[in-house]
Write a structure and sequence with these properties.
heterodimer; A: mainly alpha; two-stranded antiparallel sheet; 17 helices; globular; B: Penicillin-binding protein 2a (Domain 2); Beta-lactamase; five-stranded mixed β-sheet; penicillin binding (chain B); carboxypeptidase (chain B); carboxypeptidase activity (chain B)
């Protein structure tokens, strides 16, 4: 009453936002992300001039754009990581519906840029791929639904999220964009697993997949040919995969030297999907292992921090985001070394791509927000958990 | 609406009695239960997150390990920027018995184009047409300027001069790919044996060389096998003798207006083919096209008359009949046979050449003068079953074992039913069609004392003799008969007397059957001379065959082998016997003439 009348100095509860953020955020992961972005710029300097040259643009056009969008992405990441989990959840769920509608409207309003699959909205100066944004937002929504489903007399969240996942996968498959569809499926699966999927059901599903694969292999000649072609160590040296593989071989352990690589002249996707080949050729295995270690460290740190998280929503959302991020990087590199069949998938933060960068920034920002250290309530946990 | 039970019921009932609000108790209870669920879930999730983390580490480890393996391995394909990268010789050389090269590899370049990299495609097309006469500048220019063409082959093989000339065009869109090509440095020599090679799978950086015919195809896999490490394939052929053979045969063929000729020279103990020729021949470096339907395969230069050609070789077969009769003890070389007409078998009148009547002849003279009725009577004594077995054991029924692909399909033609009539005609070489190579193997058997030999093109270390069909003394008697065919006054092969070398052999003149059936041509013959030399101590069997020869120096055209194949064979032996390290052995009279000639 007194305050209402006299208007005292407003007092903020708790500590100021920035110091609290700095104290609680996972500073290692944050610096790893910045390092990845730096590596991406460095490789962009090598990989993109041939393409710019071919199109008739200034040689470092793509690097400049990458730096610009990268800056935006870093800002988005830091801002997102400052929000609390509830705030993140609210914004993400709202954003999800926007992205979902955008994805659904793609067949009507989208363009394919002559690449055969309608995945983009053209905004004149840049293009946006809604599925890039949809991925992390879907993770948040799914985590919320699943966490709610675990509450006493909560809604059947798992079922809802499954239906949602199914719808999105269908839409992506019709674009067609099997890479993103697989990522969505994988992210949902990981959250389901961590959220307590029955082991028996998991084992049954795994058996079913193996059985189905064998049936398909034995009955469909097309599938058989694709599979054998993938296993076959011989690869046409003039295909993208052949060039990438050869570039890795040429690079050896220490690379052929900065700017000396040849693969960027032959690969149209040298600055996006096959940037790891450029890295391997010019900087050698050393650079590849550094990149690999950065991704692994980000995923590992996040998962280990999430192990101690008591809040099911935060745990599930963080797991989903970290797993999706890690798997996307792994698939990209696995394709280059022919461990996996060819899928168009970018290397997060390293590959060139505006919308992918910003979406990645937001996703990692959310991950950072979820992995911030916060009191877990139980004295046992505090005792066990050292100071984080 | 489902009713949710109130928990904990005891405390709620108590609170109700006291008039307190039970909701607070229930809320607290729910909170506690929530806490408990969360703890349980967290514990489970902790384990599962750990599993997830381990899986991630493993997956990243696999990717990293695979990267490491790839980095440690050598680049698989030389890149386009690295032209001139050497390609190891992969196909083994082929040499003759003394190690002289018959087929080898040469590195060369192919020419291909990347039209999108071209500065001036039309000029490039014109310059190329100036270098290669077979290129049409307009057509090539149209292909160069077609925007859809990203790549095209221009030439598969370039000579060094052409390479330089193309290089001098200075067109960046014309590129060279290293190539290894098969080279036959002796040209057409032994062409039918070598066959030829062509490119199999072709890439920009290398091309597979595969054998297309002859021994190149027969031993294709062996010669391409990298484990062989370039060890050459050593043939039994002798380059010098092969050259002399082909030269004499070619001269003889032209002199006698024959349309084709073949010869086989075989070591009678090992079965090694020292020289084998078929004319007309071709250059394996530039194989002629395969005959298309409608053309006669046997008229193509690709046709190997010595191996693929199946002919009725006529009277050359008589010696087999005589030898078998001797072997069975039915006759003696001096046993007299009445060869006067008429003589009929199953209503078929057995006639002689030009209707001659030789009267009473010894077995030896049956061979020397070549009497059909004589051999017919011999075979009737032998019996058709034993005759058939004899030829079968001699290998006259199966394709020869020679190591060229063409030999596999040359299965001799034999009568479906071996009647007495077939037996009679076969006794003098009609009604059975074999290749000259088969005949040479048969004569080798007589020469080496009765052992069957398998013809081979690979150099052998020692004798390879099979089943023994004749006793030594019988083989000796047969050889004496063959010698008399040449040396006797009435012998049909008297032209085969070669100073210094004793030659024995048997002629055969067989009229060619008409293609559409219905008898034989009167004026088309296959003239054959099958010989062994030197007869005192035989070493080699030689078969010379001429296809449709005619000798026109006399008043009437002469086609018999005695006038055609025999002189050619004699000339051949004169040339090759010294090359075979055979020492001439002159009779006294001959030496005198030689001395006078050299004054």
């Amino acid at each position: 009453m007194t305050e209402m009348v006299y208007g005292t100095v407003p007092v903020k509860g708790g500590e100021p936002v920035l110091p609290k953020w700095w104290r609680t955020v996972d500073k290692w992961t944050l610096s790893f992300i910045f390092m990845l972005f730096g590596v991406g710029l460095l490789l962009g300097l090598a990989a993109s001039p041939p393409l710019a040259d071919r199109i008739g643009l200034p040689p470092f056009y793509y690097v400049q754009r990458q730096a610009f969008f990268g800056g935006l992405a870093m800002v988005a990441m830091v801002l997102t990581s400052m929000m609390g989990p509830v705030m993140v959840r609210r914004l993400a769920v709202m954003g999800f519906f926007v992205a979902f509608v955008a994805l659904a409207l793609l067949p009507v309003l989208g363009t394919d840029f002559g690449k055969g699959a309608v995945r983009w909205y053209s905004l004149g100066f840049a293009s946006v791929q809604p599925s890039e944004f949809l991925k992390p937002l879907f993770v948040i929504l799914t985590a919320w639904l699943m966490a709610a489903g675990q509450e006493l007399s909560g809604p059947p969240g798992r079922m809802y999220s499954f239906i949602l996942m199914f719808a999105i996968v269908l839409m992506l498959a019709f674009q067609p964009d099997f890479g993103q569809a697989a990522l969505i499926l994988f992210g949902w699966g990981v959250m389901w697993f961590v959220g307590g999927a029955p082991m028996l059901l998991l084992a049954g599903l795994a058996g079913l997949v193996v059985l189905g694969g064998m049936l398909a292999y034995n009955s469909s000649e097309h599938f058989q040919r694709r599979f054998d072609g993938f296993l076959n160590p011989e690869v046409d040296p003039t295909s993208q995969l052949g060039y990438a593989e050869n570039a890795i071989r040429e690079g050896g352990f220490f690379g052929v030297g900065v700017g000396e690589g040849q693969v960027k002249w032959s690969l149209p996707d040298a600055h996006t999907d096959f940037i790891i080949a450029v890295a391997a050729e010019e900087y050698g295995l050393l650079m590849v292992l550094v990149i690999l270690t950065l991704y692994a460290a980000i995923v590992m740190r996040s998962l280990i921090r999430l192990m101690r998280e008591r809040d099911p929503f935060i745990r599930l959302a963080g797991t989903g985001l970290a797993a999706m991020f890690g798997v996307q990087a792994m698939i990209n590199m696995g394709v280059a070394v022919r461990l996996l069949p060819a899928k168009g998938m970018t290397l997060p933060f390293v590959s060139y791509g505006g919308s992918s960068l910003i979406a990645g920034g937001i996703a990692v920002g959310m991950l950072l927000a979820f992995t911030r250290s916060r009191p877990q309530g139980e004295i046992r946990d505090i005792l066990r958990g050292r100071a984080r | 609406m489902t009713r949710t039970p109130l928990r904990p019921l005891a405390r709620i009932l108590e609170a109700r009695q006291k008039g307190e609000n039970p909701d607070a108790i229930e809320r607290e209870n729910r909170r506690l239960r929530h806490e408990e669920i969360r703890d349980r879930l967290r514990l489970r999730a902790e384990g599962r997150l750990l599993v997830l983390a381990v899986m991630f580490v493993c997956a990243y480890g696999v990717v990293g390990a695979r990267m490491g393996v790839l980095s440690a391995s050598e680049p698989k394909e030389p890149r386009a920027q690295m032209t001139g990268a050497s390609i190891v010789a992969t196909r083994a050389d082929i040499t003759d018995r003394h190690g002289r090269i018959l087929a080898t590899n040469m590195s060369t370049h192919s020419l291909y184009a990347h039209p999108q990299q071209m500065v001036d495609p039309l000029r490039a097309a014109q310059e190329l047409a100036a270098i290669f006469p077979d290129i049409d500048a307009e057509k090539l220019g149209a292909r160069f300027t077609n925007p859809k063409t990203k790549f095209l082959w221009v030439k598969k093989k370039l000579s060094p001069e052409q390479l330089q000339a193309v290089h001098d065009i200075g067109e960046p869109g014309l590129l060279f790919g290293p190539r290894e090509m098969r080279l036959y440095p002796n040209g057409a020599l032994a062409a039918h044996v070598l066959g030829g090679a062509s490119f199999g799978d072709e890439g920009v950086h290398a091309a597979e060389v595969i054998g297309t015919a002859g021994i190149e195809k027969y031993f294709d896999a062996e010669m391409r096998d990298p484990a062989r490490q370039g060890v050459p394939l050593t043939l039994s052929l002798d380059l010098t003798i092969q050259a002399a053979t082909e030269e004499v045969l070619d001269a003889g063929m032209k002199l006698l207006n024959a349309k084709g000729a073949a010869s086989v020279l075989m070591d009678i103990y090992t079965g090694e083919v020292i020289a084998i020729a078929s004319l007309p021949d071709f250059d394996p470096n530039d194989r002629p096209r395969v005959p298309i339907a409608g053309e006669k395969a046997s008229d193509s230069p690709l046709f190997n008359r010595a191996v693929q050609g199946l002919y009725e070789l006529g009277s050359t077969f008589k010696i087999f009949t005589a030898a078998q009769a001797l072997q069975l003890g039915l006759v003696h070389p001096q046993t007299v046979i009445d060869t006067s007409p008429p003589y009929e078998v199953l209503g078929f009148k057995v006639g002689e050449f030009q209707g001659k009547n030789y009267g009473k002849l010894s077995v030896e003279n049956v061979i020397v003068q070549s009497s059909n009725r004589g051999t017919a009577k011999l075979v009737m004594a032998i019996g058709r079953g034993r005759q058939k077995d004899f030829y079968e054991n001699l290998g006259m029924f199966a394709p020869s074992s020679l190591e060229i692909v063409e030999a596999r399909n040359a299965k001799p033609l034999i009568p479906e039913r071996w009647t007495d009539l077939s037996a009679v005609t076969i006794s003098y070489g009609h009604g059975i069609s074999v290749s000259p190579l088969h005949l040479a193997a048969g004569y080798a058997m007589i020469g080496n004392g009765g052992h069957v030999v398998q013809p081979t093109l690979l150099k052998q270390d020692g004798p390879r003799m099979g089943d023994k069909l004749l006793r030594d003394d019988v083989a000796e008697q047969a050889r004496t008969m063959l010698r008399h065919v040449v040396s006797a006054k009435k012998g049909t092969a008297s032209f085969a007397e070669v100073p210094g070398y004793r030659v024995g052999g048997k002629t055969g003149t067989a009229e060619k059957p008409k293609e559409r059936g219905g008898g034989y041509h009167k004026d088309k013959v296959i003239a054959t001379f099958a010989a062994l030399f030197p007869t005192d101590e035989p070493r080699y069997a030689l078969v010379v065959m001429l296809d449709e020869p005619v000798e026109t120096s006399g008043s009437t055209p002469r086609r018999t082998a005695g006038w055609t194949a025999v002189p050619v064979a004699a000339e051949m032996i004169t040339r090759i016997a010294p090359l075979l390290d055979l020492r001439p052995d002159y009779d006294t009279g001959q030496v005198k003439t030689l001395t006078t000639a050299s004054d």
